[in-house]
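Notes from hallway chat w/ T.B., transcribed later so I don't forget. T.B. wanted the structure written out for a chain they're using in a teaching module, and asked if we could keep both sequence and structure tokens in one place. Agreed to drop them here.
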Amino acid sequence: MATKSTQGSYDWDAIRQEYVTGPNSISTTTLSEKYGMAPSTIRRRCAAEDWVGQRKEYRNKVDEQTADKLASIEAERRVEMLDLGDDMVAVGMITLERLKKHLESNPEYMQPSKEMRMLLKDGASIIQTALGIQDTTAMSSDEFDRRILQQMDELVSLREAATAEEVDQG
């Protein structure tokens, strides 16, 4: 607590610091009462040293630092979401590859599992959210299934081409 020194003067640095960095409820009147001085004395000092400007500058700096910290936290959250989405899509793709292998030997099972569809869809949704992409054209389950089957067909074609290339080279 800043008080009068033995010579009768005040610790103006401490009083100014309290005004500049304190909450809005700290006013020159509050401080004059706290330190037992005339309100006009503290108001003159406040005006002469531009405490109001210093308070604004201090608060702007705190606001900037807060915004930077929040942005950093949000960036970390989005990176974690991207990682999670990537992991979910990777698991979905592995499952899709396994299903493709199964379908090659059992073509009668052409329906992707509900769990796999949800995994891929949720993973893609998490990635979109992390990147700030709003999906306004929600894909129906049938459309999603059609795209999965199309992807499976492309994978089968690629594998057949790779196998044919290996045979030609061997």
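Follow-up for T.B.: The chain has a mean pLDDT of 77. Might be a good example for the class.
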